[in-house]
Amino acid sequence: MANDPGGRERLLALGVRNVPVVSKGENYVFGQNLEDVAEFVGLQGTGHTPLPPDQLIRKWVLVLRALQRYVRQMPTERINENVIENRQRSIRLLAYHAFRIAEAYLESAIDGKEYAVQHANVPPQDGTHLTGAEIADYGEGVIGRLQKWWDQVPDQSLSVKIKTYYGMQPMAMVFERSTWHSAQHARQLIHVLERFGIEPDGRLTPEDLAGLPLPERLFE
Fold first, then answer.
1. Could you tell me the mean pLDDT of each successive run of 10 residues in the chain, 220 residues long?
2. Residues 131 and 156 reside in one and the same domain
3. Number of structural domains found in the chain
4. Does pTM surpass 0.90?
5. What domain range is 29 assigned to?
6. What does the DSSP assignment read for the chain?
């Protein structure tokens, strides 16, 4: 919608309040499940084979550790600047959100809370998480809870279904989506550091991200 002035109005006319969405006329499907999108547009699947959860957990923790490094490098005097010019979202809020994705997942996986789009977008409380170091400390707690959950989850195939705002979905699918979602924001923070003339501390490599269905572009 950031690049399409009429996009929001067309979505509202469909009765849609969340994105991404693929629509044809008055019919639409949420874009979170790519297999649903493929079927909607007449394709026989996406051709993507999801990584098993035991590989995804390693990649997700790797990504979250990278996010900690990158946010610690952010100059405090610039952390409230926008990530990109055409969207009102600060570096601080994006970095916090990248960790909040995992916290929101855990609230659904452990507590049974419906996975809603607003769930991962809960901002930090006023006056908190004002520096990169504070956000990285928050991330440390999230990583600890994520690893503890994984170590104790009875079914590591994550085949059970959970309630989401786009219907009942296999936990494994939400797990994969959450993993690449954090990874996409890590890529964006690398871009911000480069823009500031700062060499990212330990770049994520193509091998680190292999198998994740990441968007081709940084800001989709």
1. 57 55 57 51 68 98 98 98 92 98 96 91 95 98 98 97 92 97 98 98 98 90
2. yes
3. 2
4. no
5. 7-40
6. -TT-TTHHHHHHHHT--SS-EEEETTEEEETTSHHHHHHHTT-S-----PPPHHHHHHHHHHHHHHHHHHHHHS-GGGTTSBSSTTS--BHHHHHHHHHHHHHHHHHHHHH---B-TTGGGPPPPTTSS-SHHHHHHHHHHHHHHHHHHHHH-S-TT--SEEEETTEEEEHHHHHHHHHHHHHHHHHHHHHHHHHTT---SSPPPHHHHTT----SSS--
